[in-house]
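pinned: reference chain
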Amino acid sequence: MKATVSERILVTPSSYSRGHYLYVQEIGTLKSLEPHISRREKLESYLFFIVTEGSGTVTLHGSTRKIKAGDCVWIDCLEPYSHESSLSQPWSLMWVHFNGCQAPEFYRLYMGRDGPAVYTPPSLSPYMESLQSLYRLQQQKDALTDLLSHRYLTDLIAQIFRDTFQNQAGAFVPQKFMDIRSYIEAHYAEKLTLDGLSCMFYLSKYHLLREYQRLFGITITGDITARRLSHAKSLLRFSSDSIETIALQSGFQTSSYFIKVFKRYESMTPLEYRRKW
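pinned: its structure tokens
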């Protein structure tokens, strides 16, 4: 007797897709008829699956935890892992193995922000829709399949980030760090220093640096610079102010430093940006 009933599609992406897109390696559904354990490691792939019915366990980094209907799991398959359906409530899963040039960076960013490998989103509907769309695409296989697969995988990852970090925001971002970010938003055009912020909010600058990046996914200096550049872009497009004036109004101490930073982020000078837009 079969331990599982499954439907799957194995995909061989083009060399172009491997070099430019997120791409599907394998996708399908599984319904366990009795307990069945799956173990893997050293597989160049990322596995995402949702539990639509029943329950079971997943083991990662030597730690086992129970999962149930409504849970999502995102795994780097280079690391040893296993999952097993329960005896009393055999599970049903929807899953996709995927990879791509951007996949490791997305996963590192997620883990760097303490993203959970197992989480319970508010609703499985967006995930089911993405996985169903991906499955249909692999069945049809036409000229747009690889591009649209990249789109749906990107949507899937965005949904993971949205559900985990937005849900965590109110509960896990300390009020002091919310206050720091609000202060930066209001005062980015002024002279802000790490020493000044750490003194103002009674934090060591090392703790401030580490926790700010962990909580918001961007360094504190990177956040300040991004806000200054966004303001400068608005002035470049919608005012006739000089570069010197825009630099000072946006929080840059000199126009030469403003131009240097702008070129590093935008690969063009402020004047070139103004002409282009």
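why pinned: The two ends are 66 Å apart (CA to CA). The chain has eleven helices and ten strands.
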